Amino acid sequence: MTKTLTDLTGTYTLDAGHSRLGFVARHAMVTKVRGAFNEFDGTATIDGDDLSKSSVNVTIQSASIDTRNEQRDGHLRSNDFLSPEEYPTITFVSTGVTKTGDASVEITGDLTVRGVTKSVTIPFDYEGAAVDPFGNERVGFEGSVVISRKEFGVEWNAPLEAGGVLVSDKVTLEFEISAIKNA
């Protein structure tokens, strides 16, 4: 039997080992660079009877940024970008959950990057539920949203000779979530 959103009532813990909190930005106006944050934790409380009473809280360690390029990652950890010494975490705290379809929701919340908080709405698709070989009830959700990094005080850039800039202002945040229901 396939579980629907209304069957998911409970509190869940994000499984960082089986989830991805990633991002995509344009580089030199010609290609995309992808990366992810390797250290994060979070919880989701789902009220299947009234999804508007659900909530999500996520904390990301900003120094865990990983684009598979040590030099670039070092620059992203500098004051030009995330400045993890001063701003060690990126947080998301939901302010509302709205059901948008049989297997979809929009989660609105406060995203804080470099001490700047902005409201964002992220559409998510429910990918399903399963009991893993260890007896854990798991749920999966995927979503993405485009943000302006400048709105969060991440303004560094370099002009290109042919026009344009080295790093796009628009960044797509990508969420591939596996969460385990708490006992």
Automatic annotation (TrEMBL):
Highest taxon, organism lineage: Bacteria
Protein family according to the UniProt entry: Belongs to the UPF0312 family.
Residues in Lipid/polyisoprenoid-binding YceI-like domain copies: 11-180
Protein name: Polyisoprenoid-binding protein YceI
SMART domains reported in the protein's UniProt record: YceI
Signal peptide start and end residues: none
